[in-house]
Amino acid sequence: MIVLGIETSCDETAAAIVADGWDVRSNVVSSQVDLHARFGGVVPEIASRAHLELVNGVIADALGLAGITFARVDAVAATCGPGLAGALLVGVSAAKAIALACRIPYVGVNHLEAHLHAAWLQDPAVELPLAVLLVSGGHTMLVAVHDDADYTVLGQTVDDAAGEAFDKVARLLDLGYPGGPVVDRLAAQGDPTAVRFPRPMRGDGLDFSFSGLKTAVLHEVRRNPDHDVADLAASFQAAVVDVLVDKLAAAAEAIDARTLVLGGGVAANSALRRAVTDLGVETGRRALVPPLELCTDNAAMIAATGFRRLRRDGPSPLDGGAIPALALPTRPRPT
Ligand code: KG4
Ligand code: ZN
């Protein structure tokens, strides 16, 4: 079964063709980062307008790269939430129009669930349960994946997301937006032990907190304005990675995970990728650190999730809308 996936929840306009829920025939992403950079963050109205301008071309590219036309598409999936309302509506409306015109089923996909399903794109036979660390500009969560429709949120941030912390620290160090890649690059030249930043909530359950860490960096910069920026970046990054990996280790232990999975934009971080790979070796669990194009926002994960939701639950109604605050469907969290 060939599924066309469409993703427009934030600032990437993406479309992909995936066969049978795992075989990626094309995966096209048009990033709007440059449009938002001068504002230091995503501007929702600019994002919606850009999605509108880009979406048809991106879908045409996805079909073209897969070497097919609409006639070969069996179903269309689009992110219906969570995300920016106006941005989501563009993808959902495009998908419904295609479903109607081509007389194929439409399925609305939960963006967070789709990040979890990226594991099956990398390995269709991945061993369960998975302990997934999902870290991006918008979310920071630890999720237990028991099967492809059964999840438990084990922990999440109580304030800033991990990527948000990278972006805010980059802003206060005057490094530009988005901050993660710059901090990562600079950190490679710095000393991660130069400043001992706090490891917030380390050893204290599976929730995260990053806003205090950002403030600690601010105080350090004020106290010592001549600090080497690379040392600050490396020390901050070390604190974030320590906390993320400690909690992933605890989560994996709690559910006796077979596989550790990293997802979300912060999964691009080189220190984090290394640390998760090492954790796998240390604990005898498999560490799945998918290629970047499957970690960051993409439509292949939407198509893959759409395929499984369609098989299990059937199509979504065409009057179903975009749901900006859609939550991940989960089992209650263990106490
Ligand atoms: O998943 P994503 O592309 O978009 C969403 O937020 O959904 O994630 C973007 C976030 C930004 O906060 C960015 O600074 C962060 O991921 N990021 C990184 C790196 N590359 C991107 N953070 C740390 N290190 C990186 N190399
Ligand atoms: Zn995302």
Identify the notable features of this structure and list them briefly.
binds zinc ion, binds 5'-O-[(R)-(carboxyoxy)(hydroxy)phosphoryl]adenosine, 11 helices, 10 strands, five-stranded mixed β-sheet, 335 residues, alpha/beta, 19% strand
Determine the fraction of residues in helical runs and give it as a percent range.
40-55%
Number of helices: 11
* Ligands bound, unique: 5'-O-[(R)-(carboxyoxy)(hydroxy)phosphoryl]adenosine, zinc ion
The main β sheet shows up as: 5 strands, mixed
Annotation, overall tally of beta strands: 10
First-to-last CA distance? 40 Å
Question: In short, what is this structure?
Answer:
The chain is α/β, with parallel strands linked by helices and 335 residues long. It has eleven helices and ten strands. The mean pLDDT is 95.
Give a structural overview:
The longest helix has 27 residues, at 229-255. The protein has helices at residues 33-37, 44-66, 85-102, 111-122, 162-172, 179-187, 211-223, 229-255, 270-283, 292-295, 300-313; strands spanning 2-7, 12-19, 23-31, 75-81, 106-110, 130-135, 140-147, 150-156, 259-263, 286-288. The relative contact order is 0.19. The protein is α/β, with parallel strands linked by helices and 335 residues long. The radius of gyration is 20 Å and the shape is globular. Helix 7 runs antiparallel to helix 8. The termini are far apart. Strands 3-2-1-4-5 form a 5-stranded mixed β-sheet, sandwiched between helices. The chain has a 5-stranded mixed β-sheet with strand order 8-7-6-9-10, sandwiched between helices. It has 11 helices and 10 strands. The structure holds 5'-O-[(R)-(carboxyoxy)(hydroxy)phosphoryl]adenosine and zinc ion (ZN).
